[in-house]
Amino acid sequence: MENSFYGTGRRKSSVARVFLKPGKGDILINKKDISSYFSRRVHIENVNSPFNLINSSNKFDLFVTVKGGGETGQAGAIRLGLARALVSFDNNYKSKLKSSGFLTRDSRMVERKKCGKPKARKSPQFSKR
If one looks up domain 5-99 in CATH, what number appears? Predict the structure, then answer.
């Protein structure tokens, strides 16, 4: 995309590629409008939170491709990608976004399943005798 700024976001097993360009506030996620892509209001607010912090919700258009994970992970990945794209657009936003925690990658992942157990930590019932 010409004249656009890019940011990659990751959360859980989701990866989002965020393209930001000056516009009138349209947000397209996988070629769908944000309100039709996310079913819960919390996810829409999570995606828009970097815009709300810097008071520029209607100044940019977003084009996002996101893969993997569920809705919560995808919303978190888009938020991180958007924050990184905003920093590449204007480096003055960096201090405000960083202090609010939008530029920190949430490194929590699903713990792997261990052998001899039904899940990652769940154990069979203990019997002393």
Answer: 3.30.230.10
pLDDT in tens, 36-94: 999 999 999 999 999 999 988 789 999 999 999 999 999 999 999 999 999 999 999 99
The sheet with strand 5-11 has its strands ordered as 5-11, 14-22, 60-67, 27-29, 32-33
Tokens of 71: 């809705």
- Count the residues in the chain: 129
Using DSSP's 3-state secondary structure scheme, residue 37 falls into helix
| CA atoms in the 13 A half-sphere facing the CB of 109 | 8
Rounded to whole angstroms, the Cα distance separating 50 from 98 reads: 10
Which sign, positive or negative, has the C-alpha torsion 10, 12, 13, 14? negative
Q: Which tokens hold the place of 75?
A: 């919303």
Which structure tokens are listed for 128?
């002393």
The model's pTM is: 0.90
**Residue 73, token pair as written in the block:** 């992970």
Structural domain spans, the chain: 5-99
Residue position matching structure tokens 């209607």 = 58
